[in-house]
Structures are given as C-alpha cells and as structure tokens.
Design a protein that fits this description.
The complex is a heterodimer of chains A (about 110) and B (about 110). Chain A is built from no helices and ten strands. By secondary structure, chain A is mostly beta strands. Chain A has a single domain, classed as Immunoglobulin-like (Sandwich). In chain A, the strands form two sheets. In chain A, strands 1, 3, 4, 8, 9 and 10 form a six-stranded mixed β-sheet that branches. A four-stranded antiparallel β-sheet of chain A has the order 2-7-6-5, with no helix packed on it. In chain A, strand 8 and strand 9 form a beta hairpin. The chains are: A mainly beta (about 110), B mainly beta (about 110). At the A-B interface, strand 4, strand 8 and strand 9 of A face strand 4, strand 5, strand 9 and strand 10 of B.
C-alpha cells in the first residue's frame, strides 16, 4: 500500500508475473479515482480511471478494483514487463471539488528480468 | 501535439532570488494546474486556472503567484525563494467540465540553496 514519507514501499516482481498495487484512500465521499504511472524523471501518466458506481474496470493489461466499504483501490497489471517499472500512485476526487484531486505518495514497482 | 511543456528542466536558485517556471499546452485545454512533488510524497496543488484570466489557490499557494493571460500559457512565479520550495514542479492541464484525467508536463526540478 501507499505511505507518507521519504521511502516509498517497493513491490518487486518477476517479468511475466502479475502485479497488484494497493491504495487506501481517505475520504468516503470520493467518487472518482485515477491510477497514474510515473517513470523516473518524468511526469505522471494516466493509466486507468474508475467512478464510484463501478467496482471493476479493465484496460489493456490493467484492471482497477474499487472497494468502497473499506476505501481501498487496487491496480492489477497482467504479465508485468520491464517497461512497467515505475512509481504508481492513485488519486481521489470528490465531485463537488471537480478540479481538486488528492494524490497518494505511490508504490515503486520493480520488475526483474 | 507537444502536449504540456515546461521550462526549465532544472534550476538552482539562491535564497531570496525569484524566478518564473514556464508551462504551455497545445491541446486547447481550459483547465491548468501547478503541483509540487516532494520526495516520497504525493502531489500537492499550488494553483489552478479554469480559463484565461481566472486563477485560484490550491492547497499550498504561499510563496507562489500565477497568471493566465492566454489559454495556452500558465506561468508560476516564485518570489523570494526559500529552501522549503526545493521540489519538483509539475504543470498539468485538462479539458475541464468535471472529473477527468489531467495531462502532466515533464516537470521542473528546483533546488534552493
């Protein structure tokens, strides 16, 4: 999961395995969530989003699961590749704060060849 | 499309100096944002703009100023730089109207000594 501080949690996986990255969000009123990928020295890049009226959404090789009961979000990456190595973080948004997102600190994914 | 561009990529400032971080987007987006990212921390919103001539404070606006004279450009001004402003600054844009992904620039790394 994500944490606050200088040391990001790290997930190490073997190339070809599936990865699961977790995020605990803070506000039960949040109704829109985004997962971002940030490679070293680059800006965040959109991966997938989900609204609170859904509990699962699939993209290409990625799936986001939302559990509103426990305020938990997860990102599943299938057949992880070396190019997936990056920091992944989630963002939450409340509909009445339409242009204000709150970002987690991220999890570092390390894919071993 | 170049997307969101930022200059400079890296800058060292002395305490008390001023500088302007440049941001431009060519996607005709209405909304633009400035974030800072401290090591191991999530993005924090500094200022945002919903259109030319309209700006508003985010979560951490102290020590910064912005302007939005055109749809394309959203410069961030640092007056009297302090060591606490050492960070990586990201500019982002979105089309607007509600909850949707933001497109990020590559970032400006600022070191205040």
């Amino acid at each position: 999961g994500e944490s606050v501080g200088l040391h990001l949690p790290t997930l190490s996986v073997q190339e070809g395995d599936n990865s699961i990255i977790n995020c605990a969000y803070s506000n039960s009123a949040s109704d829109y969530f985004i997962w971002y990928k940030q490679e070293s020295g680059k800006g965040p890049q959109f991966i997938i989003d989900i609204r609170s009226n859904m509990d699962k959404r699939q993209g290409q090789r990625v799936t986001v699961l939302l559990n509103k009961t426990v305020k938990h979000l997860s990102l599943q990456i299938a057949a992880t590749q070396p190019g997936d190595s990056a920091v992944y973080f989630c963002a939450e948004n409340i509909s009445h704060n339409f242009n204000k997102f709150y970002f987690g600190s991220g999890t570092k994914l390390n894919v071993k060849p | 499309n170049a997307g969101v561009t930022q200059t400079p990529k890296f800058r060292i400032l002395k305490i008390g100096q001023s500088m302007t971080l440049q941001c431009a987007q060519d996607m005709n987006h209405n909304y633009m944002y400035w974030y800072r990212q401290d090591p191991g921390m999530g993005l924090k919103l500094i200022y945002y703009s919903v259109g030319a001539g309209i700006t508003d404070k985010g979560e951490v606006p102290n020590g910064y100023n912005v302007s939005r004279s055109t749809t394309e450009d959203f410069p961030l001004r640092l007056e009297l730089a302090a060591p606490s402003q050492t960070s990586v600054y990201f500019c982002a844009s979105s089309y607007g109207t509600g909850q949707e992904t933001q497109y990020f620039g590559p970032g400006t790394r600022l070191l205040v000594l």
